Amino acid sequence: EVQLVQSGAEVKKPGESLTISCKGSGYRFSSSWIGWVRQMPGKGLEWMGFIYPGDSDTRYSPSFQGQVTISADKATNTAYLQWTSLQAPDTAMYYCAAGIAVDNFFDHWGQGTLVTVSS
Amino acid sequence: EVVLTQSPANLSLSPGERATLSCRASQSVTSFLAWYQQRLGQAPRLLIYDASTRASGIPARFSGSGSGTDFTLTISSLEPEDFAVYYCQQRSKSITFGQGTRLEIK
Question: What are the Cα distances from residue B94, in Å, to A79, A88, A104, B26?
Answer without folding.
Answer: 20, 27, 10, 14
